[in-house]
């Protein structure tokens, strides 16, 4: 509870800090807050730091786990982020596939990364490793 308060205070000082938004989402997740309270922080993290690569995997894994709680707009945001990750950072492909597999969301990840045949071919290869 104290961590949630401290993170909220930190965001009052710097609301554009994508890392703090992610940390707040993680704290709320651990505290079993309502899903929308977690998701809103994750989406803010993307909005504030879409290209902060150190956040990509953790944030995407969490959003995959909260998929059923996302609005259509948030789902499309996750799709854009997933396409970017897949294309820009090949080293994260296997960890993304592993996260989706752990969460029983492989079909979702396949949709999120986009319909391009080259992308889909790489996805199929990654799921066989």
Task: Set out the fold topology.
Blueprint: H1 2-13, H2 18-30, H3 35-48, H4 53-65, H5 72-88, H6 93-102, H7 106-112, H8 117-128
Structure description:
This protein has 129 residues and is mainly alpha-helical. It has a single domain (2-128), classed as Serine Threonine Protein Phosphatase 5, Tetratricopeptide repeat (Alpha Horseshoe), CATH 1.25.40. Helix content is 76%, strand content 0%. It has helices at 2-13, 18-30, 35-48, 53-65, 72-88, 93-102, 106-112, 117-128. The chain is elongated. The termini are far apart. The mean pLDDT is 97.
Provide the β-strand percentage band: under 5%
Could you tell me the number of beta strands? 0
- End-to-end separation in angstroms reads 40 Å
Helix share, percent: over 70%
Q: Which structural class matches the secondary elements?
A: mainly alpha
Give the quaternary arrangement of the chains. Answer: single chain
Overall pLDDT score: 97
Number of domains: 1
Q: Enumerate the spans where pLDDT stays under 50 for 5 or more consecutive residues.
A: none
Kindly list the characteristics that best describe this protein:
129 residues; Serine Threonine Protein Phosphatase 5, Tetratricopeptide repeat; mainly alpha; elongated
Structure summarized in a few sentences:
By secondary structure, the chain is an all-alpha fold. The protein has helices at 2-13, 18-30, 35-48, 53-65, 72-88, 93-102, 106-112, 117-128. It has one domain (2-128): Serine Threonine Protein Phosphatase 5, Tetratricopeptide repeat.
């Amino acid at each position: 509870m104290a961590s949630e308060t401290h993170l909220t205070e930190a965001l009052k000082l710097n609301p554009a800090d994508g890392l703090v938004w992610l940390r707040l989402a993680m704290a709320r997740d651990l505290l079993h807050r309502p899903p929308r309270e977690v998701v809103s922080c994750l989406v803010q993290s993307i909005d504030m730091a879409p290209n902060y690569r150190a956040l990509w995997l953790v944030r995407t894994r969490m959003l995959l786990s909260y998929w059923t709680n996302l609005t259509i707009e948030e789902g499309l945001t996750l799709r854009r982020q997933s396409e970017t990750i897949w294309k820009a950072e090949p080293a994260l492909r296997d960890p993304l596939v592993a996260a989706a597999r752990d969460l029983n969301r492989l079909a979702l990840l396949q949709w999120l990364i986009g319909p391009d045949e080259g992308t889909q071919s790489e996805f199929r290869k990654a799921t066989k490793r």
